[in-house]
Amino acid sequence: MKSWRFYGKKAFIFLLCSSVGLLNVGTSFAASGFYVSGNNLKDANGNNFVMRGINNPHAWFDAQAYQALDEIAATKSNTVRIVWQTYGSAQRLGEIIERAKQLKLISVVELHDVTGSNDANRLDDMARYFADPAVKKILADNQRYVLVNIANEWGDNNLADAAWRDAYKTAITTLRNAGLPNTIVIDGSGWGQYASPIKAYGAELLQHDPKHNLLFSVHMYANYNDSSKIGSELQAIKDKGLAVIVGEFGYNYNNGNNNLGTTVNPYEVMKQSQAKGIGYLAWSWTGNNSENAWLDLVNSSDWKTLTTWGNTVFNDVNGIKNTSKIASVY
């Protein structure tokens, strides 16, 4: 059961309405932070929140990424996925979150240390970082503004769905036993691309979480070159009663002659996400290495001039500028 700030009759009415599905987006109440309700992510005011934003490389470009938050907010993004690693200090993470709050951005903090790993112990290492008292305090104090993405793309193409489930059960337990209250975001396997473990075991993980507060994430690269899969996989997750976002996505660069073999249709990603009320976070603001530079949304020379990719993400009819809404907690 979630920690609601209700008293007396109002608490009873809320819980009754919630149990029979009568609450709607306009319902006014106060919760401690973000939470999932069915396949919707809701903010602390009980309003649906649909992420529209980008990934920002704070772990690798501390000063530049911090300064870029102003430019990111100016694009009308409502969310920034903070690329972070376990060597990052709690103090600096707190400063980044505070600046994001000042700019009315929601933060999704993710750890990039174990990308592509199948080692369950390493996944739990990520959970233990977030469970550290200093880090946990910052996250918990900001649960109205911050979600916790345990690990970026843990699990490669060969990881069994059941192994994904079991490892995440352990990580969830580590976080909740430490008292972390925030919504937890969990990437699919297959370097974030596979929806199969989410469809198979997402509901089981949701029940395993004592707060029943999990948001799932798929990353759309070459596994989604078939455009029909974009909407069908997102819908299949929703049909399981789960909440999902597109935590990263790319596009058709150089007719697929790129290091990721990607011919993803980004217009379809944004169209399907908008139609289904699903959040998306494009990869990435800038600073990618040479083989991934095609995924820079702005030029790395100045950290603000839009590239062709950035123009697509921000200015398409279903892009960020036309569909983003600031979280009602602001």
TrEMBL record:
It is an enzyme of class 3 (hydrolase). This is Mannan endo-1,4-beta-mannosidase. Residues 1-30 form the signal peptide. Its EC number is 3.2.1.78. Gene3D superfamilies: Glycosidases. Residues 43-288 form the Glycoside hydrolase family domain. InterPro entries: GH, Glyco_hydro_5. One of its GO terms (molecular function) is mannan endo-1,4-beta-mannosidase activity. Keywords: Glycosidase, Hydrolase, Signal. Belongs to the glycosyl hydrolase 5 (cellulase A) family. It comes from the Bacteria. The keyword Signal applies.
